Amino acid sequence: MRGLLRLSVIGAVLACAGTTLVFTASAAAAQGSYSPYNETASAAMARYLRTLASDPKDFATLIGAGRAAIELGDAQAAAGFFARADEVNPRSPLPQAGMGAAQVISGDPQAALPYFTRAQQLGATLATIGCDRGLAYDMLGRQADAQGDYRAALSSPDGDEARRRLALSLAISGDKAGALQTIAPLAAKGDPTTNRVRAFVLALSGDSAGAMTAINAAMPGSSGSVAPFLRRLPSLAAGQKAAAVNLGIFPDAGDKRLASAGATPNYNASTTSYTVGAVTSSVSTNRLEGIDNLLHPPAPRAAPARRQVAYSATVRPAPAPAPRHAVQAGKIWLQLASGSDAAAFQTQFERMKSNYTELFDGIPAYVARSADRARLVIGPFRSSSDADTFAEDLQTVDIRAFKWSNSATDQIVPIGTP
Fold this sequence. Notes:
Elements: E1 4-6, H1 8-16, H2 25-30, H3 41-54, H4 59-71, H5 75-88, H6 94-105, H7 109-121, H8 126-139, H9 143-153, H10 159-172, H11 176-188, H12 194-204, H13 208-218, H14 223-232, H15 238-247, E2 249-251, E3 266-268, E4 273-275, H16 285-295, E5 309-310, E6 332-339, H17 345-355, H18 357-360, E7 365-369, E8 374-381, H19 384-395, E9 402-405, E10 411-414
Antiparallel strand pairs: 1-2, 3-4, 3-5, 6-8, 6-9, 7-8, 7-10
């Protein structure tokens, strides 16, 4: 699967519908390491890193961290965590299954198959690995094998994702009716991904108009930007179709790299910035060294592991609002201080930054002026859960932060603005 490009527009469609880039939840759940329905992947990653900072050989947590990295689309970090887990417990099938899943989302399904084979040799059931190995087969153009694996996984905790992938695979094989029947149980229970999957099924079957109608139901007003992608789908080879609709990977003959349009996650230790996201076909020594650095942060009073996660697309605040005028109401911020003397906020914030450099790296501050008071705030955050995650980070260094939403009359300007 070379010559690939990961498209931002299709990635948005995948993310909007709540789809999961799966290292099977059944495998992780068996170790009690991951709870995908109770927290975001970025929040889970932060929690795992905090645990691993004190116990780098915690097997269940290493598996959970790998799982969270898979959820975030970060194949290299996932493979590193799973490799560490394999060193801790080489007789467990979970690390091998995880490394296989990491290879799949990196766009190298052929390299994934030996990991799945080893996982089975160590006792993994087909239900456990079927959802991910099925996608590897799909990307290799082996739709019949893929569909067998997906069906084996329908009764597992990953059953809904296996059902989505099975429907897409059937559509790739030309079985539009079977594909639509496969997703019917998801629609019946109100699954939010149904319209997204239905749109891809229709597009794969050549019904671009129907596909755009379904996309608009999932993402109102988005059909225009997605239309070129949907129209091109039927012309792709079977394996390319599978990569496109499941992972947002689209062929581009002029580009021999696997690129992501999204932000690359950064795992920042006190003295080492370990950037992941490059594509490789195996677990390399450098990658393991990076995970070692991540799990062994030096220096006293170094930022706790949770604060060392910098997922710029999720945890970090969104771009700054325009200065000197009200921004859109209802944005989510974290309030660090309040009072009538806004001029004192800059000194307060500079003191926080000097004491906790890594924590506040790249974080701008603003003054929000309301009728009754002024507030020192950071943000805005993309979601309430992201704000909660950063507030928890601040709490680890005894900085109290409170979520606050601005009104249309609040004036929000960069700190230091006269």
